[in-house]
Design brief:
11 helices; two-stranded parallel sheet; mainly alpha; 2 strands
């Protein structure tokens, strides 16, 4: 019979659904950014003053009269608005989940519901909505675009962590397994930090249109260390001009960003390989399955990154690179949760 320590809590399926919906929002966000539809609608939250997007000739004429500097491009309006509607729906789902978590906590105080976790998640979603608006009103300012991407990954990770906490199925471990898993915590934190930094670098690479700054691999422009301009590449006070669509940086600055992302990938790979080696030594089948999953995601993610360079950034591969990066982060969040919630028997 389940006890309070391992009884599934109310709201688990709700949180699981929200996590799946968030995955869709993250992928849609990547798609919108990669098809250059971030400014597909020049206003926010509507699109040329419409709740959806202008489609008839009459509506397009009115829209272009209202925003003469932004002609309607049908292939860019719908991705932006579909992304906004999915994100808005996710916000409502998280609002309901947060209210429900507080109600469950009031009814069953002994179950220790993560109500502040849910509340923090709701606050993050509100901030994400603001970043979504600023992405449009500040004309794709790279700092805001990167922060919006990081906020999306943070929302995805915190939703998954909330799901795990509501699932309430901690690993029951022998003293030896518990000690080995607990001993990995510093390394797990290091892995989380380098993966988050690499995601931020990926966002900076994408928002500055530097993904194709190098079109060969493993060299760049046929050299191991080509001409670079790190000062301009990482100038966080840069001007965006009328808008930042297509980017404004010179080639050497984009090369510096691209190379930094490659070096980041190398650091992430080395740290994760050490973590996986140590995790494999934990005498527990579930730990070894998680080792295999993290290792598989790492191999796929690196392969997608190399394919992006060699195949000139195919849309499907670029979107997949974003999605697998999110899954790799979730796998580490899972490992961290299993480490801290494990019970010694």
């Amino acid at each position: 019979m389940a006890t309070l320590k391992n009884q599934q809590k109310h709201g688990y399926r709700w949180a699981l659904f929200a996590t799946a919906l968030c995955a869709v929002v993250v992928v849609l966000g990547a798609f919108t950014r990669l098809v250059d539809a971030g400014l597909g609608c020049p206003d926010w939250p509507g699109c040329y003053g419409h709740m959806t997007w202008p489609s008839s000739d009459e509506h397009v004429a009115k829209a272009e009269a209202l925003f003469p500097e932004s002609p309607v491009e049908h292939d860019k309006t719908w991705p932006e608005m579909v992304h906004r509607y999915f994100a808005g729906t996710l916000g409502l789902v998280i609002l309901g989940l947060t209210l429900a978590t507080w109600r469950f906590a009031a009814r069953a105080p002994a179950m220790n519901y993560p109500r502040w976790h849910a509340t923090g998640l709701l606050a993050l979603v509100v901030l994400q909505a603001a970043f979504g608006m600023w992405t449009v009103t500040l004309k794709l300012w790279p700092q805001v675009v990167t922060a919006h991407l990081l906020g999306g990954f943070a929302t995805f990770s915190l939703l998954w962590l909330l799901t795990l906490r509501l699932q309430n199925r901690p690993w029951s471990l022998s003293s030896n397994s518990y000690r080995r898993l607990a001993g990995l915590r510093p390394l797990i934190w290091l892995a989380l930090i380098v993966v988050v930094m690499q995601i931020a670098l990926g966002g900076w690479t994408s928002s500055n249109y530097a993904a194709l700054a190098c079109t060969d691999f493993p060299t760049c422009h046929g050299e191991w260390w080509p001409d670079t301009d790190f000062e301009r590449g990482f100038n966080f006070a840069q001007s965006v001009g009328p808008n930042y669509l297509g980017g404004l940086l010179e080639g050497d600055a984009r090369t510096a960003i691209h190379l930094t992302h490659r070096i980041g990938a190398l650091v992430v790979t080395l740290v994760l390989l050490v973590l996986l080696y140590r995790l494999w030594q934990v005498p527990l089948s579930r730990a070894r399955r998680l080792t295999g999953l993290i290792g598989l995601l790492l191999v796929v993610q690196v392969s997608l990154g190399i394919t992006n360079v060699l195949a000139s950034l195919p849309l499907s591969v670029a979107v997949a690179h974003n999605g697998v990066g999110a899954l790799l982060l979730l796998s580490l969040v899972t490992l961290a949760h299993r480490s801290y919630s494990a019970i010694r028997i």
